[in-house]
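Work Package 3 (structural annotation) set out to generate three-dimensional models for the target panel prioritized at the project kickoff. During this period the team completed the workflow that converts sequence records into discrete structure tokens, so that structures can be stored uniformly alongside our sequence database. As a representative example, we reproduce one entry of 212 residues exactly as it appears in the project archive.
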Amino acid sequence: MFNDKSDLLTAENSAIILVDHQPQMLFGVQSADRQTIINNTVGLAKTAKVFNAPIILTTVAAESFSGPIHPHIQAVFPDQMPIDRTTMNSWEDENFVEAVKKTGRKKLIMAALWTEVCLAFPTVSAINDGYEVYIVTDASGGTTTEAHNMSVQRMIQAGAIPVTWLSVLLEYQRDWARQETYDAVLEIAMQHSGAYGAGIVYAQTMFGGHGG
């Protein structure tokens, strides 16, 4: 186990939750580039896998309305069936809440489509139930930029902590001497972190180094 001497996020004290990254929900997103959101969400999913952190996948009305979870996300966890719900607020679904409780973690790292509904509602509910919620703003999207931004403000006022997917990846790693995840973290960064990833490729090519 990584020796954690702070209150920072670790794979041992947190769980990652991806809510409703489905076609119908993605179609409605206007607050950010849709492909960028999926890229960031896949990077977050891979972070959970590399560090063996608990991850919960959930969808709403997958068969009747919104479609399955995005295939690039499902591909990271091909054997994990998303928890399908009828409730817009995942915290009002018994199976979902039970899955959260089973992780044994009080720090929840959450991303969702849409920010103003599927992220805001369970975030506020979870905080009210005593959880510490970290909202991954760049792996979430709203129907408008204003909807996304106002919802983020609402959640912060309720006690949520805003983060980005890359900050979660690097907060989990924290030390480049942590060799058991070093190569996998660099691979995720190169695949999903844009300019930072390109910089890693350059550093490896020219100097055999890394970023951080």
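The longest strand covers residues 14-19.
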